[in-house]
Amino acid sequence: MPKPWTILNSCRGPECRIFSLRTDTVEAPHTGKQHDFYVIESPDWVNIIPVTEDNQVIMVRQYRHGTRTVTLEIPGGMVEKGDTPQHAAGRELFEETGYEAGELTQLGVIDPNPAILNNRCTTFLARDLTKIGTGACDETEDIEVVSIPLSHIPSLIKDGSISNALIVVAFYWYFTMDMNSEK
Q1: pTM of this prediction?
Q2: Do 130 and 66 share a structural domain?
Q3: CA–CA separation, 87 vs 75, rounded Å?
Q4: How are strands ordered across the β-sheet holding 143-149?
Q5: pLDDT digits over 84-125, tens only?
Q6: 56 and 81 in a common domain
Q7: Beta strands 69-73; 56-64: pairing state
Q8: Distances (CA, A) of 59 to 51, 76, 92, 95
Q9: What is residue 85's three-state secondary structure?
Q10: In terms of domains, do 78 and 53 share one?
């Protein structure tokens, strides 16, 4: 059975706005050899599936520089220092869509890529939605808010229109939860 590897040294590297790089020198227990591993340290993340009373999902289209494409996603963002994931979910929902949720229910938590990332992503279901403003995106976001019928989501995932892995996992939880018998 694999065992945790012994960390011999850990050095902090460059820091960017949303992540920093750490180099860990570790010893493999099965060989005794040393190896360097690189870890992207990033704040935890939240995703929110906002579902209206008439089963529309409030989604966002936005430019993602990593893939240089405009993507179809659910609202989401970083958990800031001192925030709880639930508070961050409410804030991100408003900032990106202008909606407020009367009810936020945690659906699940994942490790986005434990090979190189140290953060976690928590997904919430938002119900009892009220449009209270236009949102407050930051200057690195260019967002279009769209309403998509909940029944269309599986085909949008299947045809690649929704391709962000964190969003696909969020909908997996939604569609497999017992609380969603009305879908």
Answers
A1: 0.89
A2: yes
A3: 14
A4: 69-73, 56-64, 143-149
A5: 999 999 999 999 999 999 999 999 999 999 999 999 999 999
A6: yes
A7: antiparallel
A8: 9, 10, 12, 13
A9: helix
A10: yes
